[in-house]
Write a structure and sequence with these properties.
alpha/beta; Rossmann fold; 2 domains; 13 helices; 37% helix
Length: 402
């Protein structure tokens, strides 16, 4: 039973295997497929993702669609609701490919769902462009058909180390304190930070793992006060960010640079406005970004257009922006390949190199985007997040006095 936007409810899995397969291209329409979370724990972000896909399809189709072999084709997306369940996602991905004849996949929401679906698209040689799976481990499996437009997890705080280096006359003298949760995401973030630290020859003076409950980092902060590092780098999801801001405030810890993940989710700018002044916080995308492309215009143009189509949003989440970017990659690849052969399309995706409203896109041989850094924003004295595109835009040292 079909629902709005061609989403198929889970009960549709009972449809007979004898159902005629949908061709990869029907008439003048190219069919993309996606198993996406529209119910379950990922439903909110799944919907953000789907709306990003749909907006890109609309804009591309209205601009003349995709040109292959001298003919114009429209894009369409066939969705199934994976119910935020990895096993269901894998099952639906196989259904899209085996029964529906889909030969080009858009990714699901989250690293976990992408990890479940990637082996399926790989098995059948179906290229998948994904926008919502940031885990570094997705790109260490040797997949040849998986491509991601977003910055992967090891990049989340690496830009902060670049900024610290640029602010120093001798980067080798910069002293760094690290405090990270022990979960896979934070360990990925730490790995990227460590790569940058080694690249610049910086000194790590503290390298602590946060306690599992993320409720107390006073031991680390006591060392920070004693050793006076130039930068403090923290990753502990929302709870870790809240604990860090609270205890930095309570213990009056003043470090020239503090960078941490999950600032907004922890609302550090609201709960600890004085201490949060100058915090550097990573984001995948922001509408004030100075990037643009011929299809969507500037980041601000995309943002305005998306909000016009989706008026329930006062602030557009980056999940929607990167979803639109994934669809754009397919358009470019179809036209570059000038073919619907899935291997030719896969090869064309691997060679995509372009600037978009979302940021630059270029894929490594492992399929991750190596052209777009995580963007950094700095919290100012009024609690606003200001985009920092280069070290010169950053207030350094932090303007905090205790």
């Amino acid at each position: 039973m079909f629902m709005k936007h061609g989403i198929v409810a889970g009960v549709a899995l009972a449809v007979s295997l004898a159902t005629p397969a949908m061709a990869k291209v029907e008439g003048d329409t190219i069919i993309l497929g996606s198993s996406i979370s529209l119910t379950g724990k990922y439903a909110t972000n799944g919907l953000h993702t789907q709306r990003g896909y749909d907006y890109a399809v609309k804009v591309i189709n209205e601009a003349g669609g995709v040109k292959v072999g001298g003919k114009s084709y429209k894009l369409d997306v066939k969705y199934y609701d994976d119910e935020s369940t990895p096993a269901r996602g894998a099952q639906l991905a196989e259904r899209l490919i085996q029964q529906d004849g889909v030969e080009y996949m858009l990714g699901p929401y989250s690293s976990g769902m992408t990890k479940a679906i990637a082996p399926v698209s790989e098995k059948f040689g179906v290229p998948m462009v994904e926008a919502e799976g940031a885990s570094r481990s997705l790109f260490t499996q040797g997949y040849k058909y998986l491509f991601a437009v977003l910055s992967t997890s090891e990049q989340y705080l690496a830009t902060a180390i670049d900024f610290a280096a640029e602010k120093s006359s001798n980067p080798g003298d910069v002293r760094i304190a690290l405090a990270f949760e022990g979960d896979p995401f934070s360990m990925d973030v730490r790995a990227g930070v460590m790569d940058k630290i080694k690249e610049y020859g910086m000194k790590v003076v503290i390298d602590d793992q946060l306690p599992a409950d993320l409720s107390d980092m006073s031991t680390t902060l006591t060392k920070v006060k004693a050793l006076k590092p130039d930068a403090l780098i923290i990753s502990g999801h929302s709870k870790g960010a809240a604990t860090a801001a609270r205890q930095i405030d309570e213990m009056k810890v003043n470090v020239p640079m503090i960078a941490l993940t999950h600032c907004e989710a922890a609302k550090v700018q609201e709960k600890f406005p004085k201490t949060a002044n100058g915090f550097l916080c990573p984001t995948q995308w922001v509408e004030t970004l100075s990037k643009s492309d011929p299809m969507f215009g500037s980041a601000a143009d995309w943002n305005t257009g998306f909000k016009a189509d989706n008026p329930s949003y006062t602030s557009v989440p980056y999940q929607s922006a990167q979803a639109s970017a994934a669809v754009y990659v397919f358009k470019e690849a179809f036209e570059a390949a000038n073919s619907f052969d899935k291997d030719a399309v896969r090869d064309a995706i691997s060679k995509v190199e372009m600037e978009t409203f979302y940021g630059d896109i270029k894929f490594s041989e492992n399929g991750n985007n190596i052209a777009k850094p995580m963007f950094m924003r700095q919290i100012d004295g009024s609690g606003q997040y200001k985009l920092v595109e280069k070290a010169g835009d950053m207030v350094f040292p932090r303007n905090v006095s205790y």
